[in-house]
Amino acid sequence: MGPLKIGPLQIGIALPHVLNDPEEFVEEATQGYAAAHPHLIRQVQGGVVRNLKKNPGEVAVIIGGGSGHYPTFAGVVGSGLAHGAVIGNVFSSPSSQRVLNVCKEAESGGGVLLSYGNYAGDVMNFNLAQEQLIREGIPCKTVLITDDIMSASKDETFKRRGIAGALVVFKVSGAAAEAGYSLDEVFRVATESNARTRTVGVAYSGCTVPGKIEPLFTVPQGKMALGLGIHGEPGLSESEIPTSRELAADLVDRLLEETPPSCAGESHTRLAVLVNGLGGVKYEELFVFYNDVSKILKEKNIEIVEPEVGELVTSFEMAGLSLTFTWLNDELNSLWRTPSYTPGYKKGNISVTSAENSSSFTEIGEENFLQGSADSQKCAQVIVEIIRRIASSTEEHSDEYGRLDSIAGDGDHGIGMARGARSAASAARDCAQKGGGAGSTLITAADAWSDDAGGTSGFIWGIILREIGREIGDETQPDFKKIIDAVVRATSVVTDFGKAKLGDKTLVDVLVPFAESLKSTTSTTLVEAWKASNNVAQAAARSTADLLPKIGRARPHAEKSLGHQDPGASSLAMIIEVVSDYLETSENE
Length: 589
What we know:
The protein has helices spanning 25-36, 96-106, 120-135, 166-178, 183-195, 244-256, 283-299, 330-337, 374-396, 398-408, 413-433, 438-453, 455-472, 480-498, 508-519, 526-543, 558-561, 567-588, and strands at 41-44, 47-50, 60-67, 84-90, 112-117, 140-145, 197-203, 223-226, 237-240, 270-277, 303-304, 308-310, 320-327, 340-341, 346-347. By secondary structure, it is α/β, with parallel strands linked by helices. Strand 14 and strand 15 (346-347) form a beta hairpin.
């Protein structure tokens, strides 16, 4: 009998999913989760919160991100852990409106600590919500999870993404909040636990988004990918599948080489150890692997403190696992050991008292628009038609954008764009039918796009449409100059919020030259100016094939994207062309 090897063989097809309408998957899953655990959590608009009696003045620990990782995030809401979880679409960050709503439902006067993985879409949306909370008088701080050692170098740990080590940070933060720590103190221990946490993962197969038949990435049969991402991002390298002992030795060495500088001088090493299954590696296999890890650490005289072995941060049916070490000091050791009781994670003995509240839905994006002037209402009808065409074209190109995104990212760009554009088209139509002006129609569409698309693209398109809407208003039909000024304003806000620069291989590589072309136009009509600037945008999109990504999920796989256009730049160029075609057709009618 040969050596035991972890991981199933690749069979070349995706596993089936239990679902009805893929578009309703997250909502139906959340409803079912809440129905199964009414004594512990309740569903609110945007996610779930504890269904427990609140302790006045206690810091609320709010976590969140895309769906597809159960028990993280919603499954670890409860006593001793998080107070609420914001739920985005599959592998897609939740909108800022969702974050804001969950925070307000969960907070009890002690302020809010936000904690989530270091992904561009999450950072943008959570930061926007944090700013709004502070403006409303609710103190708020953020701790980003950056435990994945394969996603950036030791010199750039701030660029690392968050994976399974998030559970340690969430656990420590929740325990500190319940112990009566102030917001500053919860922030301190959360920051310290993140700084002392390192994770490395491997995969034997990819995962499949509900409604799709192809996995986001594949691993050749008999191979293992090192450095995968939990959103379906492929690994950084491939090798023959090792034995469990060989894999344990390799991953332990990689993590110990990453011993945080602040821990190097400690006389005794205590580690919280997590062996995390990503969905397709069974518990028995995980125990085999943990057995090998524990023997290695024992030989090195390293103490293991209350290890966790199981599915903690999953990725649908991805066959893979990750290993996490957190170097514990006395305070973190105590907080890590504190009991907790949630639907998806339990530690020690604890009693809970349900608040016995039913689900609470505070509507997101409630109608708030001005009745437009007659001229502005006519313009709103034009906007409705343009957004309808954008939605149709986005749907048509969805698979193409997904393919581009899967080369170095998680493959969800096409799905998110199509979902957001459809919602925007519906919201714009409803607003215009009720007498909304051009500005309000765009702002309403922006909120719908941002909320339903989620992720980076949802956030950015929310900004673009919202800023253009604010600039043109509801009083008059915007003239040539007003439209150009609106596009320039939107571009400025996008670059300020997103921090991307020309050459980073993002949507900005199309948006900035397009806006600059419009601003410097010598054309006398909008049709001519837009057509000329559209040519600039198409060329800029094609040129992104020659760039390497410098930010976002694609950065760790930069070389793979060389020779391929950026998906965000490509979808923006498509939308600019749809508008150009509409303007030209309308002029000739």
